Automatic annotation (TrEMBL):
Pfam family, one: ABC_tran
Domain annotation ABC transporter: ranges: 199-468
Listed name of the protein: ABC transporter
Domain of life: Eukaryota
InterPro entries registered for this protein in UniProt: AAA+_ATPase, ABC_transporter-like_ATP-bd, P-loop_NTPase, Type_1_exporter
Key words, A-Z: ATP-binding, Nucleotide-binding
SMART domains referenced in this protein's UniProt entry, alphabetically: AAA
MF terms in GO: ABC-type oligopeptide transporter activity; ATP binding; ATP hydrolysis activity
């Protein structure tokens, strides 16, 4: 419209000059990013939002899915957002993004007058093409276009920021396992086993999604696990031990074959119901970017406020002793989301801003064994819910010493009543000797199964693996 109205004064050129002021502010601002500084987030509510949002990332997928954390994370995120309030207002961000200099203000002011200066020059050169009315129309039109253009730029930035906030807020609702889910409640009263959960695998084959050459992790596996049994799965690396656990805990569905829980196909049950009755403890579970208290308490989100139960779980998992030595105890956050960044800071270690950055970025380190004790405590927190009917323990103690491993297994077995327990382990010790059923895996198949004594007498794959470990402790071994 403006190009058409101003055709007597150069149309497109006049319209372009109307946008000169907002364009100058976009491309020639003297902004904060050209300075040398260190910045970090010190608002505890915003830090908590960042930590909770981080739990929806792919590297926490197993914990997120098996722990039914979605509802708790979204609730806590919204609570933190309300507490944060409106401290980061649009006016704050506008000042952060734009710090104009006096020279820029003068230039911007002049740019705002360019359309009418251009119009006046044309009127002097070609007075017959202009009237008082046309000048008034062009002046009003140029102001309208300029402010409309400024509004578009400002609103576009605001929209982009708000979309980012909403994406983080609702990311947790998008974290869904890609599994067939049913509508049958678990446990079903008519099929419930009081002794624990029963499993049956019928000719199960599984290929991990995206695996190279479509390598088969399990090949036609069939087995039956009775309720209340203590089962130990052994075998070499890559033999399919952990894959069985991932299928039973519904991280994946089999590529082919059928898995039954209490004689019903597992896909018919609601996954959320099943996971409330399953406690998993594996080497893949991670520490959360939250306090040690929450790291343990989230084993049972419904009882996260029960401090006495958290302390008890911490003791059973073997974490209470080292946590007591930390300055903040259970309130310790190992990786606080202070989001410390530097801009244009020299690499000189003696530079004061470099020292400040290193101080802000400092994290608290604990050993691998201590991390496993925290995850173990999280598992005991889940066991205290009173709903667990199946416990899956997958090579969790690789960083624990022999005594720590023994104590952990003894405490888990002590709470065995009413639960089916499956242990995956490389170490042949007291577990295999007392197991109701040992399953020995090889190349994705069940090589043999039975009791410890029976498998030793048969002299098969289990006896070979057992003897290799026994020889390591015999006199004269290297």
């Amino acid at each position: 419209m403006i190009v058409h109205a101003s055709r007597s004064s150069g149309g497109p050129i006049f319209a372009f000059l109307c946008t000169a002021k907002p364009l100058l502010r976009v491309f020639f601002n003297d902004n904060v990013w050209s300075k040398t500084f260190v910045v970090n987030t010190n608002n505890k509510h915003y830090q908590r939002m960042e930590s909770l949002a981080a739990l929806t990332a792919d590297n926490y997928r197993q914990d997120f899915v098996t722990g039914n954390l979605g509802g708790h994370i979204l609730q806590e995120y919204e609570k933190a957002r309300e507490q944060l309030g409106d401290t980061c207002t649009d006016e704050f961000w506008d000042q952060w993004d734009r710090k104009p200099s006096p020279a820029l203000d003068i230039l911007s002011s002049m740019a705002g007058d360019l359309p009418m200066i251009y119009c006046a020059m044309n009127a002097v050169i070609n007075p017959r093409k202009f009237s008082i009315a046309s000048v008034a129309v062009l002046q009003q039109s140029s102001s309208t276009l300029r402010y409309s253009f400024q509004s578009i730029i400002y609103n576009a930035k605001t929209f982009q920021r708000n979309v980012g906030k909403l994406t983080k807020l609702y990311a947790v609702s998008e974290q869904k396992a890609k599994l067939q889910d049913g509508d049958l409640a678990y446990p079903a009263a008519e099929t419930e086993n009081k002794e624990g959960m029963a499993f049956e695998l019928r000719n199960v084959t599984f290929v991990y999604p995206g695996s190279k050459n479509e390598a088969t992790a399990l090949k036609g596996v069939s087995l039956t696990i009775k309720p209340g049994q203590l089962v130990v799965i052994v075998g070499a690396n890559g033999s399919g031990k952990s894959t069985i656990i991932k299928l039973l805990t519904r991280l994946y569905d089999p590529t082919s074959g059928t898995i039954l829980v209490d004689n019903i196909p597992v896909q018919q049950f609601r996954s959320s119901d099943l996971r409330q009755t399953m406690a998993t403890f594996s080497q893949d579970h991670k520490l959360y970017p939250l306090s040690l208290y929450e790291n343990i308490a989230l084993g049972n989100p419904a009882l996260v406020s029960d401090a006495a139960l958290v302390a008890k779980a911490s003791e059973h998992g073997g974490a209470s002793e080292f946590i007591a030595k930390l300055a903040d105890g259970l309130d310790t956050i190992l990786e606080p989301k202070n989001n410390a960044y530097s801009f244009n800071v020299p690499n000189d270690p003696e530079h004061p801003l470099r020292k400040q950055l290193e101080k802000l970025s400092k994290k608290i380190d604990i050993s691998g064994g201590e991390k496993q004790r925290v995850v173990a405590s999280r598992t005991f927190m889940q066991l205290h819910s009173g709903k667990v009917k199946f416990v899956a323990v997958d090579e969790p103690s690789s960083a624990l010493d022999a005594e720590g491993e023994l104590q952990l297994f003894e405490r888990l077995i002590a709470g065995r009543a009413g639960k089916t327990m499956i242990f995956v382990t490389h170490r042949f010790g007291h577990l295999t000797k007392h197991a109701d059923l040992i399953i020995c895996m090889k190349d994705g198949t069940i090589a043999e199964s039975g009791s410890h004594d029976d498998l030793l007498r048969s002299g098969g794959e289990y006896a070979k693996l057992y003897q290799i470990q026994a020889d390591a402790f015999s006199p004269g071994s290297l």
